[in-house]
Amino acid sequence: MTVVSNEPNPSSISSNSGSKSLWTNFRFMRMFIAYSLATFGDWFDALAIQIMVAYRWGADPLIIALIPVCMAVPGIVLGSVAGALADRLHKVKIMMICDVITVVLTVAILFAPSAAWLLPLLALRALMGVFHVPAQQALTRQVVAEEHLFQASSLNGFVNQCSKVAGPLLGAVIVAVFSPQVCILINACTRLLSGAVLWPLRRLTENPESSSSDGSPLETGETTESLFSQWQKGWRFIQSSRILLSTMLFGCFGLMAILMIDYQFTTLFREIKPGNEALIGWLGSSAGAGAVVIILLLNRLPRIGYGWGLGGGYLLIGAGIAALGWVSSQTSEFWIIIWGLCIGVGNGLFMVTLNYLLQKETPPAYVGRVFGIQNSLSSVVLVVAPLAGGALIRSVGPSPTFQYIGMATLAIGLAGMLLQRILWVGKQAHPVESSGELGQKSVRQP
User: Fold this and answer.
1) Which of 112, 194, 252, 302 is in the most buried spot, having the most CB atoms within 10 Å?
2) Complete domains list, the chain, with CATH
């Protein structure tokens, strides 16, 4: 892959932040390419690992269920700490180190003889993502101009949704022609390329005023503030910000409802259309297509209202889930695709708005900690919600569960839209800080 080499003043973080177009911001484009490679690789071998465990090893269903749990635990334990480190240390170096360790762990997965070895390796690899994401988001906040933040968030969301669709599909082709091990090896190669793309940014100098809330530098060896103190400040900052606190709580409630049935679509289709195993593929593809389409449309907008984006996203997701709960054996597959598109549009709308809000409403000094804390809370929900959903399905059945969860999610979304002036509009308790590289104050209105 050809990497642009005509970057002006590569050691300064501010030279490209005021570019007229995001596409001429060479630092962001390097980060975007690296993020695209890493995200595609993650989804590329996700299906291969499941096939290897379920079919090649014949593992017990409990072992298979432990895979997402092992991948969520690192985020629960170290998500907020990783965010504090992202605000404290050199962000590009964190990302590069994570890429290198991910390559090593991915290669090690190739030689894992059993699930007893695989699960710890998957947990360690997920841990690298826990450290990588806050660093990437914090650096994005510094190198991207304020007016381009929404476009940057939508581009990252677009890549993530495309990877969710294209990665497993291409991975399935590779598995059919070759083997799951080839998919895992390709993931290792994409991560290696990701680190190589970031390599020219390794000497990027961060502005001290962009890295510390009190004006003191946060580079290693220069700060007198402890990591624990910075970790505490991150939590206090969220508690003092009504917009961020509302977003975290609102997001967790909606995510809890969605994840209760996220792993149960096969259970639903097995009951209502037992002879059509391809339905889950149609649903996943249509949801991915819906997310991609809405993100492309959002990318043409300068911004979006928080209540409409977050509340509207949950409303559409809830409507799609509830509608699937009323699907019967006589329902045409056409409606499965329609409801999948509805869920995908809602998901894309919510995720882009969420990332944009966390970037926009957080001063650069706190971006890593805010995203780290958000990752920790999401990981807790990721472990608890599927277990609760499974218990509910066993109690009342798949179709009623989808109806109840869908209506609950729809109600949460509607509440977000109706109460948006209370949740996301108004002055914040924390002081407005300079965004450093932009030399301007952050606007606290959605």
Assistant:
1) 194
2) 24-196+226-231 (1.20.1250.20), 234-423 (1.20.1250.20)
* Residue 40 clears pLDDT 50, i.e. is over it: yes
Residue 301's pLDDT band (cuts 50, 70, 90): confident
Nearest by Cα to 361 from 261, 255, 206, 245: 245
Cα–Cα distance between 165 and 40 in angstroms, integer?
10
Residue entry with tokens 């304020």? 146
Whether residue 208 has pLDDT greater than 60: no
CA distance 160 to 147: 22
Q: What is the pTM of this model?
A: 0.69
Taking residue 35's Cβ as centre, other Cβ atoms within 10 Å add up to 24
Of 243, 222, 187, the residue nearest 366 (C-alpha):
243
pLDDT at 410: 94
CB 413 within 8 A of CB 317: yes
316: its two tokens: 């559409």
Burial letters 381-419, b for 16+ CB under 10 A, else e = bbbebbeebbebbeeeebbebbbbbbbbbbebbebbbee
Beta carbons of 154 and 299 less than 8 angstroms apart:
yes
Secondary structure of the chain in HEC code, one letter for each residue: CCCCCCCCCCCECCCCCCCCCHHHCHHHHHHHHHHHHHHHHHHHCHHHHHHHHHHHCCCCHHHHHHHHHHHHHHHHHHHHHHHHHHHHCCHHHHHHHHHHHHHHHHHHHHCCCCHHHHHHHHHHHHHHHHHHHHHHHHHHHHHCCHHHHHHHHHHHHHHHHHHHHHHHHHHHHHHHHCCHHHHHHHHHHHHHHHHHHHHHHCCCECCHHHHCCCCCCCCCCCCCCCHHHHHHHHHHHHHHCHHHHHHHHHHHHHHHHHHCCCCCHHHHHHHHCCCCCCHHHHHHHHHHHHHHHHHHHHCCCCCCCHHHHHHHHHHHHHHHHHHHHCCCCCCCHHHHHHHHHHHHHHHHHHHHHHHHHHHHCCCHHHHHHHHHHHHHHHHHHHHHHHHHHHHHHHHHCHHHHHHHHHHHHHHHHHHHHHCHHHHCCCCCCCCCCECHHHCCECCCCC
Give the residue carrying structure tokens 């890493």.
38
Q: How far apart are CA 35 and CA 133, in angstroms?
A: 9
CA-based max dimension of the chain: 68
Euclidean distance between CA atoms 160 and 280, whole angstroms: 20
Give CA 35 to chain center in angstroms: 11
